[in-house]
Amino acid sequence: MPEEKKFEEKMKEFQEIVEKLEKNDIELDESIRLYEEGLKLSKSLKEQLESFEKKINELNQENSNE
Asked: Which of 21, 41, 55, 59 counts the highest number of beta carbons within 10 A?
């Protein structure tokens, strides 16, 4: 099972995709592929952020109960 990339790595990859798409100098097929990859990364980043938020809330809850 491959190890999941770190949040920062995914974010950098997402930013690179956005920059490539903004340049608008790539072929349509490549644009669509990058757009699809960007959507997958965006979803993964959102899920990771939600997981981090949940963990922080749990830690805060534990700390307030002590």
From this structure: 41
